Amino acid sequence: MMAFDSFADFLAMGGHAPYVWSSWGITFLLLIVAVLHARFERRQLLTTLRRRVRREQARHQPVASQAPLNTAQGGGNHDPQA
Amino acid sequence: MWAFIHKLGSPKWFYRISAKLQPWFWVAAAGLIVTGSLWGLAFAPADYQQGNSFRILYVHVPAAFLAQSIFVSMAIAGLVYMVWKIKVADMAAAVMAPLGAAMTFISLFSGAVWGVPTWGTWWMWDARLTSMLILLFLYLGVIALRGAFTSRDSASRAASVLAMVGVINIPIIKYSVDWWYTLHQPATFTITSRPAMPTEMWLPLLLMVLGFYSFFIALTLMRTRSEILRRESNKRWVRELVEEGQ
C-alpha cells in the first residue's frame, strides 16, 4: 500500500519536502561520489602502472625505444633515459 | 584460523579473495538500498506525530550506525597493524576514513534538517549532537594526520594511535542519550527488545542499514585493492598482474 495518493503528493511529502529531499539528496549524492571516486582512483592507478611497466620494458629494449613510434605510444610522459 | 588470518594479511592473497567477494557486496548493497529506499519513501506509513519528515530516519540512522562502525573498524585495523604489523589492515584503515567522515556528515546534516520541523531548531549543543560533531573532527584529524607525514610508517602509526584513542568517543555517543538530558530520542534498535514502531516502518530501515553496511564493505574492498596496487607496485606479482592487462 502506497502511503501517498499521487506522485505530486509523494513529492510534496506532506509539506516536509525540503527536509526529506535535501537529506535523501545529500545522502545519495555522497554515495554516488564515493563510488565514482573509487572507480576513477582504480582506473587512474592501473593506467599509471601500465605506463610504468611499458616504459620499463622499453628500457630493456633500447633499439625499439629509440623509434619515434614508441614515444607516441608512451603518451606525453617522455622518459629522457630511454 | 591463524593460518587464515595470516593469509588475509598477505596483500596478494587479499587482492585475490577480495575480487571474488566484492561483486556480492555490491549487488547486496544496490538491492537493499533500492528496495529500502522505495519502501521507506513511498510505502511506509507516515508517522502519526511527525508526518512525512520521519522518512529522514531511513538515511539518518544507517549513516549514523555506519559513522560509528567505521570508526570502530578503523581502530581495530589500527590495533591489528600496530600489534602484528599487518599492512593490509593499515591500508583498509586508510581507505575507510573518508567514507566514515562522509557518513558522519550525512547523519549530522540529516539530523539538523530533521530537527527543524521536529524540534524547532537545527542545532543544540547537547550530548548526542556534540559527540557526533567530535566524531567528524576525529575523522578529519585521522585523515589530516595521514597526510602530515612524509614517512608512510609514521603516518600509519600516528593515524592508528589517533583511531585507537578516539574510539573512546563511540560509547559516549551511544550512551549520551541515556546519560544526559538530550533532545535526541533513544536508540531505535536494541538487541533486547522489539523496536517501538510498527513492522512496516522498521523493516525498510533494517534493509537500509544492511544495505549501507554492504556498501561500506564493498567500497572498502574496492579501495583497499587500489591501495594494495599503489603500495605494492614494485612487487613482482603486481607487475605481472599489470602486464597481463588487468
From TrEMBL, chain B:
Membrane topology: Multi-pass membrane protein
Biological processes, Gene Ontology terms: cytochrome complex assembly
Start and end residues of each Cytochrome c assembly protein domain: 13-184
A GO CC term assigned to this protein in UniProt: plasma membrane
Keywords: Cell inner membrane, Cell membrane, Cytochrome c-type biogenesis, Membrane, Transmembrane, Transmembrane helix, Transport
Pfam families membership: Cytochrom_C_asm (PF01578)
Entry keyword annotation includes Transmembrane helix: yes
Positions of transmembrane segments: 21-43, 63-84, 91-117, 129-149, 161-181, 201-221
Molecular-function GO term, any one: heme transmembrane transporter activity
Entry's localization field: Cell inner membrane; Membrane
Entry keyword Acyltransferase: no
Function: Required for the export of heme to the periplasm for the biogenesis of c-type cytochromes.
Family classification: Belongs to the CcmC/CycZ/HelC family.
PANTHER family linked to this entry: CYTOCHROME B_B6 PROTEIN-RELATED (PTHR30071:SF1), HEME EXPORTER PROTEIN C (PTHR30071)
NCBIfam families: ccmC
Protein name as catalogued: Heme exporter protein C
